[in-house]
Amino acid sequence: MPSRRSVPRGTLRLLSFSALIGLALLTWAELVHRRASRRGYPDSPALKAAHASGGVVVVLGIANRGQDANVVNRWRARMALRSVPAGTTTTIIASGGAVRGSIPEATLLARHLRHDLRWNGPLHEETTSRSTWENIQNVTPLLEDAQWIMLVSNSLHAEKARIYLRRQRPDLAARLVPGKDYRLGEMTLFKPVLALVGIFKLRSLR
Asked: How many helices (H) and strands (E) would you count in the chain?
């Protein structure tokens, strides 16, 4: 009779411990993103006008090597679309240059919004920015007449963009209103990495 090979002692305990650590990490990342999504907004009249026409949603691109929007840019495009208040005339601005590929991030975002997500409202592309600071700097001329402004990206990156807008144009930052960048359980496996990177970058700003 061949001998039976048993599971090494302690394997189940190790697996249970690993699962708990993984669950704790995912829960932590969700909380970090949720808190970031709520920070950095002014207590201003713009909040009351968030459902009025004449607002602008700025969606920030991420480095994209291919000919189509990558998974993170597609995620950000979905955030932008769901952030548009129903029944309003809202302009979406896609921002980002050709940082790692031949096609600007803004163009890839705009294509995905138009052709895949079926956005048929006003849409502009800002195609020269190579950093978040430049994203904000280069879109501000398009924000002058906005009644309210949303900066859309994954939550910690959007918070960083809000900080930059306050530093560059505090008058425009007074019109910031929350977008719908956070959703529980969405892109969960990406969130721990984005949380770690985002916390490091935010601390370097402060």
From this structure: 7, 4
Structural domain boundaries enclosing 66 = 43-205
Does residue 134 lie in a domain region? yes
The model scores a pTM over 0.85: yes
Phi, psi of 149 (to 5 degrees): -135, 135
51 pLDDT higher than 70? no
The candidate with the shortest Cα–Cα distance to 98, out of 71, 73, 123, is: 73
List, in sequence order, the alpha helices (H) in 11-58. Answer: 11-37
Tell me if 22 is assigned to some domain: no
Number of domains in the chain: 1
Residue 53, CA distances (Å) to 45, 62, 85, 145 in order: 14, 28, 9, 11
Residue 3, number of CB atoms within 10 A of its CB = 5
Q: In what order do the strands lie in the sheet with 123-126?
A: 123-126, 90-95, 55-60, 149-152
Residue 174 CA to residue 172 CA, distance in Å, equals 5
